[in-house]
Amino acid sequence: MCWGAWDCRCPAVGAGRGNFFNLGRHAPCAGHVSHFPPPFSCSPFRMPGSVPANGVATWPKDVGIIAMEVYIPSQYVEQSELETFDGVDAGKYTIGLGQARMGFCTDREDINSLCLTVVQRLMERNCLSYDSIGRLEVGTETIIDKSKSVKTVLMQLFEESGNTDVEGIDTTNACYGGTAALFNAVNWVESSSWDGRYALVVSGDIAVYATGGARPTGGAGAVAMLVGPNAPLAFDRGLRGTHMQHAYDFYKPDMVSEYPVVDGKLSIQCYLSALDRCYAVYRNKINAQWQREGVDKRFNLEDFGYMIFHSPYCKLVQKSLARLLLNDFLSHPNPNTDSGLYSGLEAFRDVKAEDTYFDRDVEKAFLKASAQMFEQKTKASLLVSNQNGNMYTPSVYGCLASVLAQHTAQQLAGQRVGVFSYGSGFAATLYSIRITQDATPDSALEKLVASLSDLQARLDSRMKVSPAVFAENMKLREKTHHLANYVPQSSVEELFPGTWYLTRVDEKHRRQYSRRSLNDDAPLEAGLVTSTTTNEHIPSPAKKIPRMPATTAGPAVVSMTNGDH
C-alpha cells in the first residue's frame, strides 16, 4: 500500500516518488476498493501551512481549513419507501422535508468508531504524521459516557507516534458542537498558545428518533477538518454573528436513551429567529469593516458566492435562504418592488420579521423571489443532506463538502461562503469563509476539491435496505444502547473497508474496536496493517523536524478500546 509512504509503489503510478494528493487521478491500487477513494501517493513536500525551515514565525495568515474528510455509513433507507412503510401520504418526507435517503448505523458503529474512521482516513489520505497535530477537538452530541471524551479514545491513533502533547477536548451543544470546536481550533492557531502544528477538528453524530414524525429527519456521519495557516478556505477575521438563548426546543434529558425530546414548532421558530439575529450582527460587522476600508456599499445576500446552512432537513434550508432575502428586503432603505429581485413584494414592506416565522404568504412570496438564488448559491450544498440525512454536528460541514465536491477549483476561487450553524437549546453563528484565488493545478484548493470529487460515488456505493430492516436496526439499537457485557449482532461485512467498528462492550462498559481490512477480498481481521514502505512524517507548519523519526511498520493487528490500554 502507498498510504503514508515517501516512496509510492502503486503500479498505476509507477515505482518511485509520486505526487502528493494524486487524488484519484490514477486507477485504484491493488487492494483498494471503490467505496473509499484510492489513497494518495506521498512525496516530500510542504503542506499549505508549512513555512521554510529558516522562516521567521509571524502572525499566521489565512487560517482555515486545509483538508477535509467525510464519512457516511454504508447503509441507507429510501424515504419514499419509508413513507409507504409508515403509512403517511406520498411526498410527506420526500417533498415536505426534501429528503431522498437516510443513512443509519447498526449496533456495530457508535460515535467512537465513526470518529476513529474519519480521523484515520484523513491522516492516511493526506500522508500526515500524527506528530504534526497539536490540537484535536471533537464536536458531538452523541454521548455514550458522561465523563470520558471521544477525544481520549481517538488518542489511541497517536500512540505509535508517541505524540501525547495534543490539546483540545469534546465540545457539546446539540448540532453546534462542531462549529464551536472549529472556532476553538482557529482561535488556537491565531493565538500565543500555537506551537506551529496543525489542529484537527472532528464532528460526528448518530441522529436517531423514536418511531413517529421526526424519525425521517435522522442520519449519521462524521467530518474531519485539518486547520492551519495559508489555508485554501480561510476564515474571515472578525466576521461572526452569534446568538445564544435559552429554550427547550430539542434536548436529551434521558441518559439511558438515544432519543431526544423535540418541540418541532418551537425548534423551527428558534432556528429562524437565530438566523435573523446572526445575519443582522454579521451584516453590521461587515458593513463596519467595509466602511473602514473605504468600500461604499451595503452588504446583502448577493455578496455571498455560496450560502450554506445547518440542515435538519433540506426544505428548511430552502426556507432559510428565503428568510435571509426577507431580512435584506426589510432592511433596505428603498427597495425596488417594480422590477428585479424584490418585484411584487411591496405588500410585505411593513411586516415584522418576528411575526412571520409561520406566515405562509410571506414564506411563499420569498421562496419564489429567492428561487434562482437558491439554485446558484445553496442547492449544491444539499447533496449529503438529501442523500444521507441530518448528521447533527457535521451537517453544515457536509454541506460545505458538497459544494466543494460539485464545483471546480476555478469556479470556487475567490468566492465568499456564508455559513450558518445552529444547535438547539440554543446556540447559533453565521460566519464566512474566503476561498483562495489560487486555483492552479497543483494548488491547495485544487487538491482539496479533488479529494472530495468522488462524494457522489461514495453515496451511490452504499447498500439500500428495506424500511423493515431499518426499523429492526432501530429496535436493536434501542434495546442494546448502553448495555454492558454486550457483543454487537450486526454483520461486519456490510461496513465499508477501512471502517472502525465496535467488537464488544465488557462488564465495566469498556468498549473495544477493530478496523475492517482495507482489502475487500482479504479476511476480515482486526485491521491488519501491511505497509512495506517507510512512513512519511510530514512536519508541522512551523516545525523544522518531526518529533518522532520515521519507522518501518511491520504487520500488526490493530485493536482499540475506550478503557484501559
Structure description:
Keywords: Cholesterol biosynthesis, Cholesterol metabolism, Lipid biosynthesis, Lipid metabolism, Steroid biosynthesis, Steroid metabolism, Sterol biosynthesis, Sterol metabolism, Transferase. Belongs to the thiolase-like superfamily. HMG-CoA synthase family. CoA binds at residues 267, 315, 319. Helix 3 (150-154) links the parallel strand 4 (133-139) and strand 5. This protein has helices at 79-86, 111-125, 150-154, 177-189, 264-292, 314-331, 360-369, 371-377, 383-388, 395-405, 409-412, 444-451, 455-460, 467-480, and strands at residues 64-71, 75-78, 101-104, 133-139, 170-171, 198-207, 219-228, 233-244, 250-251, 261-262, 306-309, 416-423, 427-435, 463-465, 500-505, 511-515, 528-529, 556-557, 559-561. It has 14 helices and 19 strands. The two termini are 28 Å apart. Mean pLDDT is 85; it is low at 1-41, 50-56, 521-540 and 542-558. The chain is an alpha+beta fold and 565 residues long.
Question: Roughly how many Å apart are the termini?
Answer: 28 Å
The main β sheet shows up as: 9 strands, mixed
- Counted by DSSP, the helix tally is 14
Average pLDDT confidence is 85
- Going by helix content, strand content and strand pairing, the class is alpha+beta
The amount of beta strand, in percent, is 15-25%
For the CA atoms, what is the radius of gyration?
23 Å
Helix content: 25-40%
Q: How many β-strand stretches?
A: 19
Low-confidence stretches at least 5 residues in length (pLDDT < 50)?
Answer: 1-41, 50-56, 521-540, 542-558
Shape: globular
Give, in spatial order, the strands making up the sheet with the most strands: 5-4-6-7-1-8-13-12-11
GO molecular function, one term: hydroxymethylglutaryl-CoA synthase activity
InterPro entries: HMG_CoA_synt_AS (IPR000590), HMG_CoA_synt_C_dom (IPR013746), HMG_CoA_synth_N (IPR013528), HMG_CoA_synthase_euk (IPR010122), Thiolase-like (IPR016039)
Protein name: Hydroxymethylglutaryl-CoA synthase
Function: Catalyzes the condensation of acetyl-CoA with acetoacetyl-CoA to form HMG-CoA.
